[in-house]
Predict the structure.
Amino acid sequence: MRFKVPKRQPESFRASALYLAGRVKGLTPDRVEFVERRNLHTDDPRSAAAVMDATAQQSARCKQPAYHFMITFDPKDAAAGKVTPELKRKVAQQVIERMGLTEHQLLVYSHRDTDHPHLHFLVNRVHPEKHVAYDRHQDGRRLTGIVQELAREHGLNILRNREYERDLGRDVVEDFGPTVSDAEYWQARREQREAQIPFAKDDIADLRSRLKDDFIRARDWDDLAQRLADKGVTLERKGQGLILTDGERFAKLSDMGKGVRFHALEERFAESFDDHMARQAARVAQRERGKEEPTPDTSGMAPRDRRTVEGMFAEEPDRDPAEAAVRRFDEADMDFRYWGQIEASYRSAAGKVRYAERQHSFAEKQVPRDEAWLGKRDRSLNDILGKVYRDAAKARAVWDDLEEKFGIRDAERMIEKDPFILGAVRGMRLGDTRTADRKEARRYYRYIIERRRRWRDARNRLEHTRSEIEQARRRVKQSIRDYELLQQIAGSPQVLRDTMLEKIKARARALSRVTEKAIERSRLSDERREQLHRAWRLAKERRLERERKRERGRAFGLDLSLFDK
């Protein structure tokens, strides 16, 4: 099973219903296996569309009330007889319930005109009674979880998203484990890196049990990083928190148990993770500079002699070439992972700068609005005091003194008990007879405390905004300082990209020199051997796929590998 939400949503209920029912030119109603309706008195496409249009007109804000998505089944499941009409009806009902569309008007069409059975859902987003539109925010993520759950419940295959797989360079995928989330996929595209797949639930439980003692016994960030690296796991910055990754899969730090939290670790180690990564970047950069050794001058040598001399100068002969190749691949892989950590911290630091600048800009734009609001409340307070007291300025000055001496609440109680404490009230009173001004003053007196409170709230709001500007200014300075520190260590973004490219090439070269048997016979830990074996297997699959592309292209005189990213 898999889902699809077309980018172009229907503009008309009538046109979409007629098309799905096969009532348009070029189609036939025989393509429809069955029709299911919800909250509609008929499944006739014209009548149902008219009712849905009338309902959608009750909402003036919803500009696109028609919502269309599909659920597709694997042809292998259909050939095995698993996809029956009863199953499709049951799946349609479960999708409607779990998407929260039970009370909405909708039509479900089951089509049988292709080798892959599929269901079309035509939904009216406007609720028939509440007249509120259904929120489509992150509907793709919801459908991803729903489809995977239903596929497991009914014993059906989970089809991967082909667009994601093509962009990721994974045209052939054998397992149906966790998939790349929408947020991770697009974030990886923006950051020009490969998207990571989350650990499965069982793998997270196993990872938690393996790393539990390491988080408890670690003395500082360096100790924790070394303990995790021994098991092939590294910590990386992601958003506002941390993730644990083995290079291909990742798990959130919060998945490691209740006692493992980002800020709790920073308090325990008395150091922020960003400061630790800055020191780590400095150490890695220093180690890289230490590796730079003078090379012999081979400019006048023949190509064969040059390669021989450079090879002898590059490394010492090893008694076990296979073990040395695995060791070099292990070092190249961890070196790439270390620089990956630095790159993640680099992205995080750059993101902090942008976020702090946006916060500062927003606070500065808020000041004129808050000042205008305070001026309006100030004029309103003066106006009502002028309608109650003969001298409004004196009454306000007395009120300020009372609040300064006795506090806000006590001053309000004193004014409620004795209104004349602020000064003479407008108008006259003779017995039970009051002049017009005194009647007006009595009427407005009931609102002066409320007006004073609104003025005070507006003043506090302006003061809060100004303090936010100062804090935002400090955050901008701090984030720029951290970013510049990383730039001094790791270089400019272009230098860092070049470094990462060199690390990727070095890892690929080391990977090409190892064999599956050498990895199995190495003296590395079981977890590390499994990681290297998985990387070797994935590289082999990609190499075979490139060879298949070249073979297909030779028939047309093309090199299809030129189109790879």
About this structure: The two ends are 29 Å apart (CA to CA).
